[in-house]
Amino acid sequence: MKKHNFSAGPCILPQEVMRKAAEAVIELDGIGLSLIEISHRSTEFVAIMDRARSLVLELMGLENKGYQALFLQGGASMEFLMAAYNLLETKAGYVNTGAWSAKAIKEAKLFGEVIELASSEDKNFNYIPKGYTIPDDLDYLHLTSNNTIFGTQIKEFPKTNVSVVCDMSSDIFSRQMDFSQFDLIYAGAQKNMGPAGTTLVVVKEDILGKVSRQIPSMLDYKVHISKDSMFNTPPVFPVYVSMLTLQWLKDLGGIAAIEELNEKKARLIYSEIELNPLFKGFAAKEDRSNMNATFNLTDDSLKERFDAMWKEAGISGVNGHRSVGGYRASMYNALSLESVGTLVDVMSELERKA
Ligand SMILES: *Cc1c(COP(=O)(O)O)cnc(C)c1O
């Protein structure tokens, strides 16, 4: 039986996407060849790449607004350095909201001055800093929209005239927003879109080409744009599966429809965390993430019993990250309301029996 998969990443994908992807590995759309044994320059694969790129812009409402969608490699971790390589001439501002932001800051420092505008490290990143000043002379401001490990999420993005770069790895396509407030968005596929192996980059073309340094071809967004995201052999399988997931999302009604479901899932688990005296939430209430709910037991002696109960219920992947401890329920787009209901039932059963 399929488990209730709360894994933080790589993570759950829609079942029908998985079935189609499995079929395409054997034979792609009746062409007598496998997806993974045809040329990436074939008509079939070029159409897949084009479709994936245009679905991204369509779902985000960014068509004909000067943006390009790219499917690159190296993970979000590569974008930590690539963003700085392409955009950082003198100084950039970073908001440190957790382990991933800190890694982005470390890489950017190799390319110029990095100002940490705000940080929530004082409270082990359990909140989103607000009200910080953003200098006008930054090359860009870097934000992390959702902090996968700590379970916090930016609900309101700061208003600024400087370019905004955003790591959306763990909440991309999960909620509606004005995506045109960002000039560069990046996300590893493996948290809401597809298997590990490709990274989505959405970039506003007119911010590129302004730094004075030379950029190696593979790290240059302009080169990838000029080659329609096929400068070298792209990761064909992850791109194909991402395309299927994006199509699945579109057929469902787009980001608006999935946002409604994601809000229901989040309300269900957070109300249990609040009402059940055996649990306490980790993240500050106003900043808690609709994707990753972090929580702890109030009495650690119940751990063994609780762990046995959720395993028995067919639940997988709810152990917290080592830097937070406790539990983390990741509720990405493909996770059903029923799966969250199953976890909540186990939590309330623990209360009844304890
Ligand atoms: C997982 C994650 C990353 C790292 O992604 P890789 O693709 O493994 O490099 C970066 N940022 C955030 C917010 C993440 O959740």
Feature tags:
binds pyridoxal-5'-phosphate, amino-acid biosynthesis, 7-stranded mixed sheet, about 350 residues, pyridoxal phosphate binding, 3-stranded antiparallel sheet, 2 domains, Aspartate Aminotransferase, domain 1, alpha/beta, 14 strands, Aspartate Aminotransferase, domain 2
Structure description:
The chain is an alpha/beta fold. The chain has 2 domains: 15-252, Type I PLP-dependent aspartate aminotransferase-like (Major domain) (Aspartate Aminotransferase, domain 2); 254-353, Aspartate Aminotransferase, domain 1, CATH 3.90.1150.10. Helix content is 35%, strand content 17%. The strands form 4 sheets. The chain has a 7-stranded mixed beta sheet. Strands 11-12-14 form a 3-stranded antiparallel beta sheet, covered by helices on one side. Helix 7 (254-275) packs parallel to helix 9 (337-353). The longest helix is centred in the C-terminal third of the chain and has 22 residues, at 254-275. It starts with a strand and ends with a helix. Pyridoxal-5'-phosphate (PLP) is lined by residues 9, 75-77, 100, 144, 148, 167, 169-170, 188, 191. One of its GO terms (cellular component) is cytoplasm. Belongs to the class-V pyridoxal-phosphate-dependent aminotransferase family. SerC subfamily. It is an enzyme of class 2 (transferase). Its EC number is 2.6.1.52.
